[in-house]
Amino acid sequence: MTITQVAKYLQLSEITTYKLVNEGVIPAFKIGRHWRVQKSDLSELIERLKRGERI
């Protein structure tokens, strides 16, 4: 998923999403100059947050 797609999915701004990616809160990788997030990694993060884990 692109940063824009992740931002829409989580209902966050793109700036906040970039910040979370740069801090390592949202696991992501770069392809060229563009960040990508695997949907499975995002789902795992959401599950951890639902269990009350602090990120």
Describe the structure.
This protein has three helices and two strands. The protein has 55 residues and is mainly alpha-helical. A two-stranded antiparallel sheet has the order 1-2. A hairpin with a 2-residue loop joins strand 1 and strand 2. Helix 1 crosses helix 2. The protein starts with a helix and ends in a 5-residue tail after the last helix. The model has no long low-confidence stretch (mean pLDDT 96).
Count of alpha and pi helical runs = 3
Strand neighbour order, sheet with most strands: 1-2
Largest sheet, in brief, is:
2 strands, antiparallel
What does the overall shape look like? globular
| Percent range for β-strand residues | 5-15%
Q: Average pLDDT value? A: 96
**pLDDT below 50 for ≥5 consecutive residues: which ranges?**
none
| Radius of gyration over C-alpha positions, nearest whole angstrom | 11 Å
Q: Please provide the ordered H/E string of secondary-structure elements.
A: HHEEH
Q: Helix/strand-derived class? A: mainly alpha
Fraction of residues in H or I helices: 40-55%
The separation of the N and C termini measures 21 Å
* Count of distinct strands: 2
